[in-house]
Amino acid sequence: MTFKLRKQLKITFLLAILFLSNVVIVSQFNILSIKAQITDEQIEPTTNFAPSKSSDYLLGITYTWLEDFKVVGSAVVSDSLGNSYITGTVNTDLITKTDIFLGKTNASGEILWLKKWDFQEKDIANDIVIDESRNQLFVIGETLINTTFGYSDVLVVCFDTNTGEEIWNATYGELDLSEEGNSAVYYSSKLFITGTQTTFFHLYSSPNVFSVCIDSLSSSILWMQNNTSSSYDFTPSIVIDENQEELFLVFNRYLKISNDQLYRFHLRKLLLNGSTIWESIFGIDESIKINDAYFSESTDTIKITGQCNEIDSPANKDAILLTLDTSGVLLQEIKIGSESLDEFALTVTAVNESLYIGGYGESDVRSNQASFLSKISLDGEIFWFDKIDKYAISSINDLSIDSQDRLIVVGSCKFDYDYLFERLLLAITKDSDSDNLSDYFEEIIGTDPENPDSDADGYTDGEEYLGYTDPLNANSNPRNRLRLRNLAIVLFILLVVSFMVIQFSINTFSRKSKTNEKSAIVLFFEKIRLKIKGRKKRIDS
What we know:
Layout: H1 3-27, H2 31-35, E1 41-42, E2 52-56, E3 60-65, E4 70-78, E5 84-91, E6 98-105, E7 111-117, E8 123-131, E9 136-146, E10 151-160, E11 166-172, E12 178-187, E13 190-198, E14 208-215, E15 221-226, E16 233-241, E17 246-256, E18 259-271, E19 276-282, E20 289-296, E21 301-309, E22 317-325, E23 330-336, E24 343-351, E25 354-362, E26 369-377, E27 382-388, E28 393-401, E29 407-414, E30 423-429, H3 439-445, H4 461-466, H5 478-514, H6 520-540
Antiparallel strand pairs: 1-2, 2-3, 3-30, 4-5, 5-6, 6-7, 8-9, 9-10, 10-11, 12-13, 13-14, 14-15, 16-17, 17-18, 18-19, 20-21, 21-22, 22-23, 24-25, 25-26, 26-27, 28-29, 29-30
Helix pairs in contact: 1-5
């Protein structure tokens, strides 16, 4: 083995050792993330369902369920005993046939039952309310009544909260109109429902908003209020102020049917007998579209959520949260989202001093549709905003707070291998310390659910976990990880440059040695050697 070959092997071996050490420095922070993954477990199937259970750092306990072709959760409501009830729609074929499903979870976060309900060829569930005093649930939606023209009627189905069995069902509508129920509230044995009705084959074939009051005992209509005009109304939502016994109806309206990019949203205040007290029209931003509303009893305000144009990038959408008082005065406007990405807020709810907003948007990780969840204080401080990127497609459609202050999440999702199929997404979570980690998940990884910074290093447990550092080790944090990463990069660059210089020197020496000529690098070192030798002689003399 020649001197040149031995030297090259030593250099290569040294280079490999240094490179591997740099890789270890960077990769050691991924270990915690790998250990924290929870393997899906299959629940023991019953006669009518077999959902899969898993755990997520943000969503906590999660369930997914696939039945037939597509399952979309649309609404959830909770009772005072810790139970929650979910509803949505099941596509039983790839084209038109749909059924309603209903499910119940208990205080331990377990699914007690899931059931399908079939009435007509097309049954759709949009909302759910509860009468705890009579153990009754009411699912509100629409059902197909005219297969020739595709007309629908408002559908209301009453179920038993204990068994999920039907008590009664009723449809409401007119022959020349197509109606759908979108949103509802329950109060004092009455159902207050809002939706849209459309007149087809008419000069003004556009949906208009309506509201109706139904006796929950007899299923009879007590009053109905509707509009018939050329306006185009959509996504109405209704909330109630029980202390003042007043209703608030909010809906969108196109400014021009020919231009669906310009909107106004309306807020209408009603008495429980259907009389309108006042109606306000808001043109804060012509791009604002409202999707949901919530009445906050603790602040006596109306929380409205939807989407609007980004300030710096109008082609993209941001989620928006508006706060109005009971007189219709705008108190606060908050925009939430990632720059140059779309976010659409579909639902809002509140617990204690916090608000939760859910919806979907563009993922900055997988370039797909990812559901998002955000926690915000009542005064507008955003605790966290996070997207769930582990699904191929996902959406959060409704939220509810149960008696244990847990957040119940319902929506839909698709895995990478689902293709044409879509699954129910159900999650039960709680973030007591607002650190962007579910309490259930913190119990798994060993951090304190009541302390946002378990190792007291100045970074929250969520920041450390999502930054691939150890939230239980004060020396392992995003700042130190960044320093180590930068050090590894610098060492790697120096190593590469050194290798190139040494390789160049060896090649130059080899070429010169064939002609007995000394290379430039050799001459350079000889000059240094001679200078040192000459200086030593002068010192000796």
